[in-house]
Design a protein that fits this description.
By secondary structure, the protein is of the alpha/beta class. The protein has a domain of about 210 residues: Rossmann fold. The strands form 3 sheets. Strands 4-5-13-10-11-12 form a 6-stranded mixed sheet, sandwiched between helices. Helix 4 runs parallel beside helix 5, helix 8 crosses helix 10 and helix 9 packs across helix 10. The protein starts with a strand and ends with a helix.
């Protein structure tokens, strides 16, 4: 069966465009585009047959289906030539049973989706494999004007773009807000050979400039306003359901910034419903840092209008975004999923991450935002103790060493480190060492 997909206006304007065309917004209204699949054609295969096919592909070395994204190729970019596909076998990240943490907060069935266990250390790999693969096919066709790919980033997007661009041999350009990206994130695109431009502005300023620079179509825009990214990222929701043997959790909690990720999460789950694979939808929680909370402010006002703001400096630097481009898509998804938007202060997010770390995780500050939001919802009785909850961890904690170090040295602004665990410096004296160990074990008893 031949499957197909195309770009279409998210607001419902007439017209559709090829996925291999350089276009990001609707020519009629200026709204964002989304990828639409021929679901009637996909229904040619029944739910059980789709589930069996997807399960058989997990972990295989049969190119390209071992990837968590490309194992679902018919649902992503069905007509992409396998020879043009650029993959690091992304996805298939583990679903961690956070049993100890769940017991502490009173949730019997708490899971954390470890999207940071990926090639560049974040969930952005899921979307970038799709975008770079499509660009690779466009450039190899010999008819495309595209010469390079560019993005504005708070760190993780630039790392993913640079890595996948390097694998494909495609020049990449990244725009970063100077001094607002961790050293571990900054070095990733540098190491992969990207042209790294550190601008004296914030993410929103970088986003404005990259849109101007890419207007002539010779440089392809790789931010999440490009719906190709969403197609890869939507597989995280599909993968969660698949890992539960095609059962749907009650809640999925995700940290959000530019809002492409929550839009993608909903898109994947809606596809499963449309294909008859699932019959219910989970409730979604979008979690924001208090200092960069435009979606939360809008939610509190009933989504009557987009409330863009000047984002303040937050430890959750990857979601330090005041004017999210995927706002319309996110609101649409949250309304369909009876969604909630919650926020977390610097103190709350840092201590939530540390508390999770003490149970075996190693959380980035953005995962801390999601966990802090969950803790609040549990305390208020919104999330009930017998419900299955999945928190999406968007990046690996190793990218944020200074955040971890600052916490355990108790030097983070606006944070009282409740679980600080600094090293103990002692003389090389066995008696003193033993006394120190005994005191610590007695305190822990």
């Amino acid at each position: 069966m031949a499957y197909s997909a195309w770009f279409q206006c998210v607001r419902g304007c007439e017209g559709h465009w090829s996925l291999y065309e350089v276009i990001y917004r609707c020519p009629t209204c200026g709204g964002l585009l989304e990828v639409i699949h021929d679901v009637d054609a996909l229904r040619d295969r029944g739910p059980l047959a789709w589930m069996r096919l997807m399960d058989d592909r997990v972990g295989t070395t049969n190119w390209p289906y071992g990837s968590g994204v490309w194992g679902k190729k018919e649902w992503v970019v069905p007509d992409l030539d396998d020879d043009n596909l650029v993959s690091m076998f992304e996805g298939n990240s583990n679903l961690f049973w956070a049993h100890r943490l769940g017991l502490q907060i009173g949730i019997e069935d708490l899971w954390v989706k470890m999207c940071g266990n990926s090639h560049t250390g974040s969930f952005k790999d899921l979307g970038m494999t799709v975008l770079v693969s499509v660009v690779n096919q466009m450039m190899r066709s010999g008819t495309s004007p595209v010469k390079a790919v560019a993005c504005a980033s708070t760190g993780d997007t630039s790392a993913a773009l640079a890595a996948y661009g390097a694998a494909a041999g495609i020049p990449t350009i990244v725009f970063l807000p100077r001094g607002k990206v961790s050293a571990a994130q900054l070095i990733q695109p540098i190491a992969n050979g990207a042209l790294v431009l550190a601008l004296d502005t914030d993410f929103d300023g970088c986003m404005r400039i990259v849109q101007e620079v890419t207007e002539d179509n010779s440089i392809y825009l790789a931010n999440s306003m490009n719906s190709l990214r969403i197609e890869g990222q939507k597989t995280v929701g599909i993968e969660i359901v698949q890992q539960f043997d095609w059962a749907v959790p009650d809640w999925i909690v995700m940290p959000v910034g530019n809002l492409g990720n929550i839009s993608a999460l909903g898109k994947g789950l809606l596809l499963l419903r449309d294909l008859g694979i699932i019959s219910k939808l989970p409730r979604l929680v979008a979690a924001q840092a208090e200092k960069a909370n435009p979606l939360y402010r809008s939610y509190r006002a009933g989504f009557q209008e987009k409330m863009a703001m000047q984002a303040e400096t937050t430890l959750a630097s990857a979601i330090q975004i005041g004017n999210p481009v995927s706002y319309e898509k996110a609101v649409k998804v949250l309304e369909q999923f009876d969604g909630i938007v919650e926020q977390a202060s610097e103190h709350e997010l840092a201590n939530a991450a540390a508390r999770a770390d003490r149970t075996g995780m190693y959380c980035c500050p953005h995962t801390g935002v999601a966990l802090a939001a969950l803790f609040k919802l549990v305390e208020r009785g919104v999330v009930r103790h017998n419900e299955r909850v999945v928190v999406i961890s968007t990046a690996h904690g190793l990218k944020f060493t200074s955040f971890k170090t600052g916490y355990h040295e108790d030097t983070l602004a606006e944070v009282e480190a409740l679980d600080a665990n600094p090293p103990v410096y002692l003389p090389a004296d066995a008696k003193v060492v033993r006394q120190t160990i005994d005191r610590r074990l007695a305190q822990a008893a």
